[in-house]
Amino acid sequence: MSTPADAPRVELVARNVGRLAPVPRPARPVSWERRLLGWHSLLVYLFLYIPIVILILYSFNRSKQTAAWEGLTLDWYLRLFHNDLILRAVKNSLIVAVITTVVATVIGTLAALALARGSFRGKGATQAALYLPIIIPEIVVGAALVTFFGVAQMRLSLTTVVIAHVAFCISYVAIVVRARLAGFDRSLEEAASDLGAGPWDTFRRVTLPIILPGIVAGALLVFTLSIDDYVITSFVAGVGATTLPIQIYSMLKVGVTPEVNAVSTLLLLLTVVLIVIAQRLQQDPTAQGGIKK
Amino acid sequence: MNRNVAALGAIVGAVLVISGVAGLAGCAKKAGETLAVTQPKDAGKLNIYIWSAYLPQEVLDKFTAQTGIKVNFDTYDSNEALLEKLQSGVADYDLVVPSDYMVRILVAEKLIQPLDHAKLPNMANLDPRFLDKDFDPRNAYSLPYFWGTTGFGYNKAKLGALDSWQALFDPKNKGRILMLDDMREVFGAALKSMGKSENETDPAVLKQAADLLKKQKKLVATYNSGDFANILAAGDVDIAHGYNGQIAEVVAKEPEKLAYVVPKEGATLWMDNVCIPGKARNVENAYKFLNFIMEPEVNAEIVNGVSYASANVPARKFIQPEILNDASIYPSDEVIGRCEFLEDIGDTTTLLDQYWTEIKAQ
Predict the structure, then answer these.
(1) Which domains does chain B have, with CATH numbers?
(2) In whole angstroms, how far apart are CA A83 and each of A1, A14, A262, A270, A271?
(3) How many CB pairs under 8 A join A and B?
């Protein structure tokens, strides 16, 4: 995810996650090439999912050590709900991720529309500036932001974390939505105004539904980026602003317990639910509009 | 109306509801509200930045009940994270807990303020052996919070009793040794095994130590400072160089299999210290808290809660005997006698850095 050319792929990934590995079932006898391809895909999927399966499995492990298996238990989930520090971190992470997603998606979508439709002076520079946060190493963004907050005398808090997240997330939304707009058939909008729809109606009933899958993909991407960001957050977090990744890192000194696996499993579940909803939404035939990719 | 817009609304709604529920659960759980995210701008608060698992919640609740001061605390995973936060100049922390060498850096960078000992009558409870150290003469800036040793944990069932650093350099244990990923500690182990001081500055001796460590690298399975105790407990290595606290925890689970030892040649003493940042806004509350945690019973409650050794003498009366008598937490005077603090070795650090890079890059 570092170049604009990758952007459409994000959407593809978002669409395919949650489906099982595609198993080809041709009627003809299977050629060895196809068989090889099948095995290859299987291995790729195993490579991707085995760590996650192990993470989930070990959240039910009775042993306190993350490396040894001692039998099944639900203890870690129960303890999780009594661990104020982790709960507080989850709460902070969700607050930041939700606000970031809403704000960054709105701003990013507007930016994408402006760049795709408008012609104004400095458009090229604006576009380049928009891609920059994706290319600049996170650690530089983090250091720059903390310097900025220092100069601006803004005390580090949850607010500074949200500002930082919105700042680096806008670019991702803009790029994903722009990719969707690239295949946009303007004649649909023209047809709408021919039929008497005003600009707002045209946007709401024609443009928005067509680019919505791009917006949702962008929003999901931002939610995920925000909820697991460590580097930038560690720079700009202040009093009471410990997010989940920071909490987990700070627990390293005394050893990570399966409580961390349990909380990761729950967050994974939340993400999967979101992706399934998003996918169903994108499968809706009306959502495809007249667009062919 | 369009199904898509409705569905997008549903997603946003679902996320809001879920986070709302999580938030409520978080808030409802703490009647004391000590973990509140936003706080009004009154003087009655204290923001602590500390290592994780260093401060039991009960102690904070007690402090709030006694003084009405609301305590927020955040945790960090390295001294460098703390340094970065204080350097930003906009972090609102009133108490921080750097390790010994970091105290020196924070003083040099003027990020912590001198302590007014007149406001800390309970300092009298502190063990003089842990005061007036090289990194902060006369405790002008810091007070000891926890201390411990850096020795090694090992599989006693497999290797028998060990008492010397030589085991970490023995080809017999090839591929079964874990070393801390920490330059000074690793050189410390090599120097101690040679019968030298960990603060040695003689280039010839350091060259010898570096050669020893280069040879040792073939025996080392991994360099790790985060998860060493778990790796030992899981059986992936038989010997793990590490800090006493985490190793004591896994030893306590399998006392017949694992053990922790401070080798007979001596080892490192480490100490984490409480300091008040230069830009703290609630300095008076910080002093109140410092005095509070030096009260014998409160201090014992902290030690009992997290199993690290404190420097508080009268607190020992209230510390659980199994902690007080655990030699890996409270080593005997004789053991402490052969240990030393890592000191500032000045320009020699550059030489060590160079050797360390060579060792790691090998």
Answers:
(1) 45-142+275-331 (3.40.190.10), 149-269+338-361 (3.40.190.10)
(2) 35, 32, 12, 20, 22
(3) 174
* A216 and chain B in contact, CB less than 8 A: yes
> B73 φ, ψ to 5°?
-140, 140
Distance between CA atoms of residues A240 and B48, nearest Å: 10
Interchain pair B15, A98: CB under 8 A: yes
pTM of the model: 0.76
Which residues are B259's β-sheet partners? B154
The helix or strand, by DSSP H or E, that contains position B362, with its residue range, turns out to be none
Confidence of residue B339 (pLDDT cuts 50, 70, 90): very high
Q: Is A54 on the interface with B (CB under 8 A)?
A: no
Angle between helical axes of A258-283 and B3-29 (0-180°, round to 10): 160
Q: Do A252 and B227 touch (CB under 8 A)?
A: yes
Does residue A127 or residue B206 have the better pLDDT?
A: B206
CA B347 – CA B361 distance, rounded (Å): 22
Cα separation, A185 vs B142, in Å, equals 68
DSSP state for residue B133 in the 8-state scheme: B
B48: tokens are: 């602590």
A65 closest CB neighbour out of B85, B89, B230: B230
pLDDT reported for residue A91: 93
Instruction: Give the contacts of A119 (CB within 8 A, at least 6 positions apart).
Output: none
* Backbone angle region of B53, left / alpha / beta, with phi > 0 → left and psi within -120 to 50 → alpha: left
Query: In angstroms, rounded to a whole number, what is the distance separating the alpha carbons of residues B187 and A142?
Result: 33
Is A232 in contact with A138 (CB distance < 8 Å)? Answer: yes
8 Å CB contact of A84 and B57: yes
Return the ∠ at Cα A77 (arms to A76 and A80), rounded to 5°: 85
Q: SS3 of B179, please? A: strand
Residues of B in contact with A82 (CB under 8 A): 29
Provide the shortest C-alpha distance from residue B89 to chain A (in Å). Answer: 6
Which pLDDT does position A284 carry in this prediction? Answer: 54
User: Which one-letter amino acid corresponds to residue A287?
Assistant: A
Q: Provide block-wise average pLDDT over 10 residues at a time, chain A (293 residues).
A: 44 47 62 90 94 89 73 87 88 95 96 88 88 90 93 92 95 92 86 88 90 90 90 92 88 72 86 79 53 39
Assembly ipTM: 0.70
B97 contact A CB<8A: no
Class of domain A83-288: mainly alpha
3-state secondary structure of B4: helix
A33 part of contact set with chain B, CB < 8 Å: no
pLDDT score for A157: 92
- Rounded mean pLDDT of B6-29? 46
- Whether the CB of B351 is below 8 Å from some CB of chain A: the reply is no
Helix ranges, chain A (H): 7-16, 32-58, 75-80, 84-117, 123-135, 138-151, 158-182, 186-194, 199-202, 208-228, 231-236, 244-251, 258-283, 285-288
Eight-state DSSP code of residue B182:
-
Euclidean distance between CA atoms B143 and B136, whole angstroms = 9
Contact A241 B85 (CB under 8 A): no
CA distance A48 to B163: 45
Distance CA A9, CA A176 (A): 9
Would you say residue B21 has pLDDT above 70?
A: no
Domain map (residue ranges) of chain A: 83-288
Residue B330 DSSP code: S
Residue with tokens 């959407």: A11
A240 vs B230: CB contact, 8 Å cut-off? no
For position B121, what pLDDT does the model report? 96
